[in-house]
Design a protein that fits this description.
2 copies of one chain form a homodimer.
Chain A: H1 5-18, H2 26-32, H3 37-54, E1 58-62, E2 68-72, H4 77-91, E3 97-98, E4 102-103, H5 112-125, E5 133-137, H6 142-152, E6 156-159, E7 170-177, E8 182-189, E9 198-206, H7 210-221, E10 225-235, E11 250-259, E12 264-269, H8 272-275
Parallel strand pairs in A: 5-6, 5-9, 9-10, 10-11
Antiparallel strand pairs in A: 1-2, 3-4, 7-8, 11-12
Helix pairs in contact in A: 1-3, 2-3, 4-5, 5-6
Chain lengths: 286, 286
Amino acid sequence: MKIRRSERLIDLTDYLENHPYQLVPLTFFAQRYQSAKSSISEDITIIKTVFKKRDLGIVETLPGAGGGVRFMPAISRELAAVYLENLREKLADPQRILPGGYLYLSDILGQPNLLRQVGRLIATQYAGQEIDAIMTMATKGIPIAQSAAYYLNVPYVIVRRESKITEGPTLSVNYESGSVHRIEKMELSKRSLPTGSRIIAVDDFMKGGGTISGMHNLVEEFSGKLVGVTVLVESNDARVDQAEKRFPATSLLNLQAISVEQQKLNIELGNYLEVTDFNPEKQIIE
Amino acid sequence: MKIRRSERLIDLTDYLENHPYQLVPLTFFAQRYQSAKSSISEDITIIKTVFKKRDLGIVETLPGAGGGVRFMPAISRELAAVYLENLREKLADPQRILPGGYLYLSDILGQPNLLRQVGRLIATQYAGQEIDAIMTMATKGIPIAQSAAYYLNVPYVIVRRESKITEGPTLSVNYESGSVHRIEKMELSKRSLPTGSRIIAVDDFMKGGGTISGMHNLVEEFSGKLVGVTVLVESNDARVDQAEKRFPATSLLNLQAISVEQQKLNIELGNYLEVTDFNPEKQIIE
């Protein structure tokens, strides 16, 4: 029994959404729908156009024997700006002010609709780039890492301050915690990361950058390469010049000032929009 | 300019996928596509049929003024069995055996494609039920909680062994850790959970159930109601009879036997398929 185009378009859209960055040969869909490859090509063309028009992401077709169709969940600068402003408004609430100039973020990090936006933003920044894994620090970096992993279709690994018996052998490095100005230790399960991996590091809050610097060292211990760092909120509080940092970080939001006494905070957009290339087709690695 | 059905079907599919459990009035789509509500109704009917046929989830339309369309990401028993067997095979690797009869799970918990399956399974178990939040224990329960939160469209909260300065005021309870047989403390940020919430608790590994019991107490401290417990792997190792437990847990997988000496393990499906009702329409709360 023949499968109609409407059914193919619906299932194709669902399939691509749930398989980002996976190159799927057209023959796979031709068999799935018992339809001619030419019909599938027409379907893809329609989907590609609608995804672009509706800002749902980029559907690209790679020609040739090893070719197929691939979905990149990258959004436009306009939509990214909307997501960022939405996050900024949510965080600009004085009730979030915590002692020590910290921001209460836990609720944000547990809301799936916001995490989808954060993941989409990070995935857009690194769209089409060669990335093997995402690294983050327990505990509050995990939601950020998972949201990005969903859209980039790469695994993420969790660095911890104290290793657990359920981690197996670990590799550890020391780092200076910017928050408490003392040397701490961070560990990662040895088998969790292949040596030579290309890594992006993500975290919820950066103040001074000690944690990021530690993750940088850890990546090097695994003979890997740190290709990017993105944080949800960067705090200017510690007054560390980006240039002085070992690795420049991309921030979605920037905590410019926070006063526990006056219960005031000033949170602006970070440097995300400046550093992000919104034409990922350019950077695709075939 | 008129928007064609093909475009509507693609965008509708994308929209529903990204807004699970959100009741969307047809007028929203009528405006979005400058199309008649009757056309939108026809689109929904097509999508509903394809989603059911392809096992992509349940699209339901609620009639009346307060009505609209809602997507429930629930899968069939057949697809659930495929997901579970896939997970079982991945975990049944003797190299995962860790001292103390633990399983190395960290890699599994960082793979987005597997987390999608876990999330879909948990969301199917609780499909259509009234749930306000998902609770989990740091660190390795977090990926499970987030994967389920994505499909159930509810926030998740993270219980921690030691509170952080970035959590604000916390509520804490003591619990007996099944693994090390000593009394430990677990804390949850006070503002992270409204009192009277209906909660499901999830975790990666249950051995004895001390952590779950602790989360049960914590839910009661928040005057909430624990309506379900689901774990990725339950270990028979501790020989705790389900009946003896304060709260019966649903397990996706069951670690029946593990021998560190012989480097052998026997992992089977848990009780998920027995306890899950695969007809969520029945339990929908209007």
